[in-house]
User: What shape does this take?
Amino acid sequence: MGERLAAQGSLAALLAGRLGVTGIPATKVEGACASGGIALRHGVLGIGLGLYDFVLVAGVEKMTASSTPDVTAALATAGDEAREMRAGLTFPGAFGIIMREHMARYGTTLEQVGLVSVKNHGLGAANPKAQLRKPVTLDEVLGSRLIADPIRLFDCPPISDGAAAAVLCPAEWARDFHAKPVKVLGSGHATGPATLWEMDDLTAFPATVRASRKAYAMARIAPTDVQVAEVHDCFTIAEIIASEDLGYFPKGKGGPAVEEGWTGVDGKVAVNPSGGLIAKGHPVGATGCAQVYELVKQLRGEGANQVRSAEVGLAHNLGATGVVSTVTILGRL
Amino acid sequence: MLRARRCAECGTLAVELRATCPACGAAGGDEVTLSGRGRLVSWTVIRVLPARYMTETPYVVGLLQLEEGPRLTARVAGEPDGLAAGQAVAFDTLDDARGPIFRAV
Assistant: This one.
C-alpha cells in the first residue's frame, strides 16, 4: 500500500539502490496482506530454478502516518470493489460476517474467539519485536469497542509500521553463511474467491486449504508434523479458521481448541508464539516476511516464546478474505 | 427493480449484468427482473467507516440469499437491532455508488 499511504512506489528498485546493488533485478510483489508470502515464494522459485544464487526477500509497510479512515479505505482496495466493497464493506466487516456465520454454524462462542486475543497479546508481551506488549484479559477483549459487529477492537491487529527480510540461497551453501541455517521444506500458493458471496462456505478459505496441501505434499509431511505455526490472524476469528483450514483441527473445532489451550506454546501446535498479527503488528506488506523471521528464530531455538523441540514450522499468509494465500514450511537444515 | 442476467447456455442467474456469464463464460442471455426478495445469511454493522462514507452513521452490510438463487453482499438499510439470520429482506433502491440497497421486511 506504499503508493497510497506513503506516496511511494518502485520500492524494489529503490531498495536495490539504497543497498548499493543497482543493476540486479528487483521486483515488487503485490498480493494484499499476502504480499510478503508471495514474494518469498517467488524468491524460492528463483533459487530453485537456478536463476539466482542469492535472493533478498524484503517486506515493508508504513501505515501509522495515515488516519484510520484512510487506512481502512486503503486496506479495502484488496477486495473486489465493483462486486462487493462499494457497498461500504470493510475488512473488519467482512470478517464480522464470517465470524457470525462460524458462531451460528458451529456454536463457536465470543469467549473462545476472545481467548485468541488474550493468548496473542500475552505472547506479544514477551516478544521484544511486538508492537503491543501488554497482556489483556478476556473481559477487556469482550468489553472493547465494536469495530464491525461482532468484531471488537481487541479482535483486530493494530495499524503498524514495520519491515522484515530473508536472505535465500541454495541449501548446500547455507552453512557457509550461518551456523543454524533454515531450509524451505515446502511452499504452496493458491487463489480463492474474491467476494463473500462467491464463497461456498463462509467459514473456510479454499486458498488456504489448497496452498497448505501443496506445501505439505512438497515437504512430505502431515499437519501433525508441524510444532509451530505463524498463521494469518488478521482478526481473531481468522486464526481459528486458519487452524482448521491448515488441518490442525476439524472444521468447527478451532474455537474449543483455543479454549483447551491446544494452540498455546505448549499445546498440540503452537499457533502464533510471536503474538501474531494481533500483538506483533500487521504492517501489511511486511507480515509474510515477519512470520518467516519469527519461525527462523524458533527453529534456531531463539524464539521469544520458544516452543520446545521446534523442528518444523509453518507460515500461513492470507490476502483479503482469502483471495490469495501462501503457506511456507520451514525446517532445520 | 433488481435485474439479473440468465445465461443462455448454463442458465446461471447473475446479478452482474455483464456481457459474459460468470459461471461458464458464455455470451448471450436475457435480462430478467428479480422479485427482490431474499434472506439475510450473515451481517455486520460497520462502525469504523471507510473514508468515502465517513459522513454516514454506522450501517449494516449483509450477505443475502435471493429467492431466485443468487447471493450478493449489500447494504441493509435501517436499524441493526433485531436483525437475525434468516431475516426476510427486500430490495429497496439502487444507489449509484453503493449498489443495491435492501431493507428488512
